[in-house]
Amino acid sequence: MSLQLMTYLVVGATFALYIFIAIKSRAGTTGEFYVAGKGVHPVLNGMATGADWMSAASFISMAGLIAFKGYDASVFLMGWTGGYCLLAMLLAPYLRKYGKFTVPEFIGDRYYSNTARVVAVICLIVASLTYVIGQMKGIGVAFSRFLELQYEIGLAVGMIIVFIYAVLGGMKGVTYTQIAQYCVLIFAYTVPAVFISLQLTGNPLPQLGLGGEMADGSGFLLDKLNQTLVDLGFNEYTTQNGSTLNIFMYTMSLMIGTAGLPHVITRFFTVPKVKDARSSVGWSLIFIAILYTTAPAVGAMARLNLMETIRPSTAQASQSNEWLKYEERPQWFKNWEKTGLLKFEDKNGDGRIQYVGPKYKEAENEMVKVDRDIMVLANPEIANLPNWVIALVAAGGIAAALSTAAGLLLAISSSISHDLLKGIVMKDMSDKAELLAGRIAMAGAILVAGYFGLHPPGFAAQVVALAFGLAASSIFPALMMGIFIKRVNNIGAVCGMLAGLGITLVYIFWFKGWFFVADTAMAANTPENWFLGIAPEAFGTIGALVNFAVAYLVSRITPEPPEHIQNLIEDIRVPGVVQR
Q1: Strand runs labelled E in 323-404
Q2: Which of 2, 450, 500, 535 sits in a 20 to 30 Å window from 199, CA-based?
Q3: Is there a domain that residue 310 lies in?
């Protein structure tokens, strides 16, 4: 069976499963639409959270960035998993105990202000839309290669599928669909990793194969990868290249951004009890760890396979006659050239593919473009794995992107229909009207996200990192201070959120395109021009510090919160108090 037919069958079967689950789990009430009726078992919720969390950035892009950035890309592993520990200890149990539907609803009640609620909605929409752009990039990449569709058509197909099962099922349908998507994506990620680890090291566990010896006796895998990269003018794979401050800020931004993402927090509103919220976090960490401990091996092995398939193992950068001839390029190379995500230009006219690093100043790198987001999807093809494995990876990548996109769009929908319309504009709105408004809002959010997904400002993981920075700088401080600092009032919270979000947006746009002509902005987007060498993706930590400082200082010079609000905080924090 051909690869294309196999891919259509596998991906089509998963789509049919998702839609069937959505129809069977159709939400009939606002409680089912927003929080799945608060009746999801902690283990199942942990699995759904894992799928909600492991987006296209985790499945498709993270290992690709690890493949090319090596040690420096460990920020994603530390930041995204560490954030769950913060969420488990500092936020999830308290927010579940409060017992409402959305994050803006909590912020509006805690800070006794509709203004605070509206600002929280704005922060949520900005962060969530940025996040969903990264998912759309992943959907487009997967469809453009494996279903041989144009990037734009792939996006449209993905948007339609999300619309069907998210709009029909709401949180109830999304939850059970995400459980199925987790099974698909984790199987799709680990199976090829096991195959490739066996090929290269003879060890079926990729986590151990990463630090093991090569099956051909040529030394340890990481040592061989380091030497290969150095020979070609690149930096060592296992050596830190970025500044320590930037790595710290990047990791911290991802951590607190994780703890402040509304679509993740909302997942812990779906369990029956406060105890179940903490248990769900533990289960989700276990399910996430399966992929995150595999990702470093996938990245390293993908980079080594890439190098080995376009040059003889003995070739040196200075020996251009030993490089692979372009007309002899492998089939996987031809396949990905069709997508435009892999490009070659014969700059010196010798007909050979030369791929060298910046240390060879005299050599022109003829691999004009190797999109980081293709590495996980291309890895099984590079390793000549069976067609069913390649098709499975395609289905897994699409499942990862769709699962997170659905969660994000649901968070956007609920903030508009429940927090703005029901909470402020039309307080007497019936449940039926609110449910209809939620579905209309989700449809609009899908269209907006798809439009911005056509021109994403970077690789999937980079775009997602920007979203985490926005959540870190705006929502996380408001939640933390709302639970643990009684003195912070409504004026302080609003000023803090606006200041944190504002300074982070300005910094991102300064280097990503809006305040300069795009080409000029990209030229300025270098470590030499960054504030203290902090990348735009890492600036959420600075934004969070600004948020904390402004909120606390403004609260100190303005009236303290009313007594009933301070009692509310006590009720949330003290164990044993009856849940709301």
Answers
A1: 342-343, 369-370
A2: 2
A3: no
Q: Which residue has the tokens 């291309």?
A: 378
Spatial CA neighbour of 160 closest among 185, 136, 127: 136
**Phi, psi (rounded to 5 degrees) for 396:** -65, -45
Residue 348 shares a structural domain with residue 400: no
SS3 for 414-449 is HHHHHHHHHHHHCCCCCHHHHHHHHHHHHHHHHHHH
CB atoms within 10 A of CB 471: 34
Residue 307's nearest CA partner among 220, 226, 242 is 226
Q: Do 441 and 326 share a structural domain?
A: no
Structure tokens at 40: 């999801």
pLDDT on residue 518:
43
167 and 138, same domain (yes or no): yes
Q: Are residues 215 and 341 both part of a single domain?
A: no
pTM (2 d.p.): 0.79
Q: Are 429 and 568 found together in one domain?
A: yes
**Is residue 60 a contact partner of residue 52, using CB atoms and an 8 Å limit?**
no
Query: Residue for token digits 């979000």?
Result: 501
Six-digit token string for 249 = 């800020």
Q: Are residues 427 and 520 in the same domain?
A: yes
Cβ neighbours for 46, distance < 8 A, ≥ 6 positions apart: 279, 280, 281, 282, 283, 284, 285, 286, 287
Under 8 Å between Cβ of 352 and 325: yes
Question: Domain check: are 22 and 83 in the same one?
Answer: yes
Decide if 308 is inside a domain. no
In a domain, 579, yes or no: no
Residue 175 to residues 26, 153, 445, Cα–Cα distance (Å): 11, 27, 19
Torsion region of 363: left, alpha or beta (phi above 0 gives left; psi -120 to 50 gives alpha):
beta
* Domain total in the chain: 2
- 579: pLDDT confidence band, cut at 50, 70 and 90? very low
- What does the pLDDT look like over 104-114, one tens digit per residue? 888 888 898 88
Amino acid, single-letter form, for residue 123: C
The C-alpha angle with vertex 268 and arms to 267 and 274, in degrees rounded to 5, equals 165
Q: Output the six-digit token pair for 193.
A: 């990793």
Ramachandran angles phi, psi of 220, nearest 5°: -75, 150
**Beta carbons within 8 Å of 299's beta carbon, 6+ residues apart:** 62, 63, 64, 65, 66, 67, 73, 375
Domain boundary among 375, 401, 419: 375
Supply the pLDDT for residue 194.
92
Residue 84, CA atoms < 13 Å, CB-side half-sphere: 27
CB 63 within 8 A of CB 462: no
Tell me whether residue 173 is exposed, middle or buried, using C-beta atoms within 10 angstroms of its C-beta: 0 to 12, 13 to 18, 19 or more.
buried
